[in-house]
Amino acid sequence: MSFLSPVTLAGNLVTLEPLAAEHHDGLVAASADGELWNLWYTAVPRPEEMRAEIDRRLRLQREQSMLPFTVRRTDTGLICGMTTFMDADADNRRVEIGSTWTAAGAQRTGINTESKLLLLTHAFESLRCIAVEFRTHWMNQQSRAAIAGLGAKQDGILRNHRQSPDGALRDTVVFSVIESEWLSVKTGLTHKLRSRADR
């Protein structure tokens, strides 16, 4: 079995399914919820670009550098986003959780928190990772707060890390959770989800 093998990860609020071509229409509908492609500080494919993005992620999966998922709500059964394990380093047992977006109607519902708990649990307890990384745009304050809220620690900032299609330079903030922190992070995320369910 390869380091990143397709797997379905199921929780109470959400199921992370291996990305497939037939998810196209559901993903287009999810990205239209909030017209997420208009957010300049993140990269969400426009409807006409979704097929190419699915193909790109599946190509990276075949190359063993990415394991892409489709995010599906449990309550409605509808697709509400995408996420991945990416930049996999099997020799050093490291992955990044990224290339994530969530439909506007699914934000602040606990879906993102549970998705991250499912991914981190798989990374640390099945893949036996020693570290899991998160990266986001310096200007994406919502994403930075959400990552810190997971219990990840900021490692640093990669200045002028990437160039956007319009030529703008992006500073990237890097966070991580390491193996010795996992139990504490898991407890915190589980408590957050339980508190939300008890309301």
Q: What order do the helices and strands come in, and which of them pair?
A:
Blueprint: E1 9-10, E2 14-18, H1 24-32, H2 50-62, E3 66-73, E4 79-89, E5 94-102, H3 111-126, E6 131-137, H4 141-150, E7 153-163, E8 169-178, H5 182-197
Parallel strand pairs: 5-6
Antiparallel strand pairs: 1-2, 2-3, 3-4, 4-5, 6-8, 7-8
Helix pairs in contact: 3-5
Would you kindly provide a brief summary of this structure?
The protein is built from five helices and eight strands; from the N terminus they run ββααβββαβαββα. The protein has helices at residues 24-32, 50-62, 111-126, 141-150, 182-197; strands at 9-10, 14-18, 66-73, 79-89, 94-102, 131-137, 153-163, 169-178.
**Averaged pLDDT, please?**
91
Strand order of the largest sheet: 1-2-3-4-5-6-8-7
First-last Cα distance? 42 Å
Major beta-sheet overview: 8 strands, mixed
Q: What fraction of residues sit in β-strands?
A: 25-35%
- Tally of alpha and pi helices: 5
Q: Note the overall shape.
A: globular
Helices and strands: which structural class?
alpha+beta
Class, according to the CATH hierarchy?
Alpha Beta
Number of strands: 8
CATH architecture type: 3-Layer(aba) Sandwich
The percentage helix is 25-40%
CATH topology annotation: Aminopeptidase
- Low-confidence blocks of residues: none
Overall number of structural domains: 1
Radius of gyration (CA) equals 16 Å
Order of helices and strands: EEHHEEEHEHEEH
